[in-house]
Amino acid sequence: MSKPRSIPNPLQILIVEDVDAMRELLDLTLREIPGIKVSGAVSNTFEARVELTRRRPHLVLLDEILPGESSLDFLAEVKALEIPVLLITSIVGRTHALADGAVGRMVKPTWNTLDEDRVRIQKTLFDLATTLFA
Prior knowledge:
Elements: E1 11-16, H1 20-31, E2 36-42, H2 45-54, E3 59-63, H3 71-80, E4 85-89, E5 102-107, H4 114-133
Parallel strand pairs: 1-2, 1-3, 3-4, 4-5
C-alpha cells in the first residue's frame, strides 16, 4: 500500500511563456498567491529545458502556442519526466480537445481583471494540486 502524498508547500511552478509582458504578469500573479513559488519564468522550450536540469518544479505552466518548437512536443517530453503540465491560453472558451498529457487548461490573466484573475488562478491551482498530490 502506498503512503498518501501531500500537496507540496510551496507548490513550485515553472512558467513557459514567450510574451514578456504576459510572463511578467503570470510571475507577479503567482508570487502573490500563498503556497506558490515560481521556480522559473522562461520564454521558450530551450530555456525551459535548462531550468528543468537545474530544479524540478511540481508543475509547468506551458503556453499553448509558442514560436519555434511545438508546445505539444515539449509537453510530451515533460510528461515523460512525470511533471504535470497545465496549458495556458489567451482564448476564452476553448472548444478543442485538451492535448494528450496535459492536466488541464487555464485562461491567462489580464491587467484589466487582475484581482478576479488572481482568485480564479488560485482556485484552479489549488483544485489541481489537490487532485494531483492528495
